[in-house]
Specification:
about 550 residues, alpha/beta, six-stranded mixed sheet, five-stranded parallel sheet, 20 helices, about 45% helix, globular, binds 6-O-phosphono-beta-D-fructofuranose
Length: about 550
């Protein structure tokens, strides 16, 4: 008889964690710190320029030990090795997930299905670098012979969020004289707003779409082409104004982008992990080849740390296991990320796609229902603005929501006085969330007793602080890779396929069917559910009614 494999909840570590949860539920962070003066130094780890303080979490050394056992029982080290070896870890799409190959050095080789993917990557990177140099130096000119002053990235999801984050975060390292704009939404207002003040003769569009079938991106590319034609005339060489990035060069050719202007990605690059590929073309133009290389170096430093470091000191593994602890044992339904850095304000939306598209799954890699809850909702916003918006709920609300506070020790630009204030806020928020303020303390401060219940902060609100010296390209690379591998760690525990996203397909299919039905010429009967039919009719009425 074939023995049934042990399920997640049957593993001995899982069962022990369930027992152990009761002990931790009753402990308080004040008590954990008072009883262990070294906790703040000890529960911290450092790698690739990032310092992770995880001491203000609702856990003990025993919790961490049991989480590491769980990781071992779920085969985390061998799953990491499989991803880095090029195994087909994207099971439902039957392909490897080789974003890690995008940042391997030229001297490495990784042969998958008989092809050295590292060689392929570097050949393409050389083309990207040459193009970036040409645009930056002004030797790439538009149809009328003028150099490019604005690069507009047209893409959505992974073809937008990474480049937008990187260009915004690393603005001090970007070329002077060239502006960068990003259009993702199919709302015509988005493109109109982005090009309103641009000169078509000096504008270069980078159309990024792995599939080249994404309607939002294709619609914006056609609209951009129309804008160029109107301004520059139908006969001029529009190819001086369009570059394409895709895994399907034929589809780019169908859009009218010539082969020399098309940069390759491969089906083994996931959209949400594609920043290091040609999908980062706009970023490479902004930073230049050296800056882009430094970004890749940062990713690689974290990759190497993730592969080689035992779980006890492994930053992404620690973060991923702590996330599992909150989600599955303490019932947290959401997790927030708050970069106290204006430059990193696009980190939360970037991480939303990374975490929720990867781990928002209900079946395991083998298609069985997952026995436990998977990805929490990821949300967040820029600190300190967030403190004046949603932090009230974090301090005194009734939800448990672990928060990542991201901080930098030095400002990239601007004065250091304002920067110290920013950092002070990070440390203050982490302490206030963890330790709160008791009724006795308020009483001792002379607070009116009627106010005391309203002013008590219960504490025990968990945070990680991720601290780096300065936001350089390498810092951003390490930070993103840290989150990629944390997400991978969680997926490994849940045994889900973190690299597919079938959930988004149905909506796309229905939108495709509905679009012509909204058109004025549609006369046939609507065959949707009664709500959708009513919405379509009402929409047409509202649209077509006179002013
Ligand atoms: O939202 C679904 C998705 O497939 C994402 O995974 C991807 O990043 C995005 O659409 C854009 O896809 P593409 O790069 O193929 O246009």
């Amino acid at each position: 008889m074939v023995e049934r494999a042990e399920t997640l909840r049957e593993t001995s570590a899982w069962r022990r964690l369930e027992w152990h949860r009761a002990d931790v539920r009753h402990s308080r962070l004040r008590g954990l710190f008072d009883g262990d003066p070294g906790r703040g130094e000890r529960l911290a780890a450092e790698a690739a320029g990032l310092y992770l303080d995880y001491s203000k979490h609702l856990l003990t050394d025993e919790t961490l030990e049991l989480l590491r056992k769980l990781a071992a029982e779920r085969g985390l080290p061998s799953r990491i090795a499989a991803m880095f070896r090029g195994d087909r870890v994207n099971v439902s799409e039957d392909r490897p997930a080789l974003h890690i190959a995008l940042r391997m050095p030229r001297s490495r080789s990784l042969v998958v299905d008989g092809v050295d993917v590292v060689r392929q990557v570097h050949e393409e990177q050389d083309r990207i670098n040459a193009l970036a140099e040409a645009v930056r130096s002004g030797s790439w000119v538009g149809a009328t012979g003028r150099p490019i002053r604005t690069v507009v990235n047209l893409g959505i999801g992974g073809s937008h969020l990474g480049p937008a984050l990187a260009c915004e975060a690393l603005r001090p390292y970007a070329t002077a004289g060239v502006r960068y704009r990003f259009v993702s939404s199919v709302d015509p207002a988005a493109l109109a707003e982005a090009i309103r003040d641009l000169d078509p003769a000096e504008t270069l569009f980078v159309v990024v779409s792995k599939t080249m079938t994404t309607l939002e991106t294709l619609t914006n590319a056609r609209a951009a082409e129309g804008w160029l034609r109107d301004a520059l005339g139908g006969e001029v060489q529009l190819q001086r104004h369009f570059l394409g990035v895709t895994a399907h060069p034929d589809a780019a050719a169908a859009l009218g982008i010539p082969p020399d202007n098309v940069f390759r990605i491969w089906d083994w690059v996931g959209g949400r992990t594609s920043l290091c590929s040609a999908a980062g073309l706009t970023t490479c133009i902004a930073l230049g080849p050296d800056g882009f290389r430094e970004l890749l170096d940062g990713f690689r430093a974290m990759d190497e740390h993730f592969v080689t470091t035992p779980l006890g000191g492994n930053l992404p593994a620690i973060a991923g296991l702590i996330a599992v602890w909150y989600r599955n044992f303490l019932g947290a339904q959401s997790t927030a990320v708050v970069p106290h850095s204006h430059a990193l304000r696009l980190l939360p939306p970037y991480l939303q796609q990374l975490a929720m598209e990867s781990n928002g799954k209900r079946v395991t890699a083998s298609g069985e229902p997952v026995e436990v809850d998977t990805a929490p909702v990821t949300w967040g916003g820029e600190g300190t603005d967030a403190q004046h918006a949603f932090f009230q709920l974090l301090h005194q609300g009734t939800v448990l929501c672990p928060v990542d506070l991201v901080a930098l020790a030095r400002p990239a630009t601007g004065d250091s006085e304002g920067h110290d204030l920013l950092a002070a806020n990070v440390f203050a928020q982490a302490a206030a969330l963890a330790f709160g303020r008791t009724a006795e303390e308020l009483d001792a401060l002379g607070v009116d007793e009627r106010e005391i219940p309203h002013r008590v902060l219960p504490g025990d609100r968990p945070t990680s602080v991720i601290l780096a010296r300065l936001l350089r390209p390498a810092t951003l690379g390490a930070l993103i890779a840290f989150y990629e591998h944390s997400v991978f760690t969680q997926a490994a525990i849940w045994e889900i396929d973190a690299f597919d996203q079938w959930g988004v397909e149905l909506g796309k299919e229905l939108a495709l069917r509905l679009t012509p039905e909204l058109g004025e010429g549609w006369k046939r009967e609507l065959l949707h559910d009664s709500s959708t039919n009513a919405l379509v009719r009402r929409y047409r009425q509202l649209r077509d009614a006179g002013d």
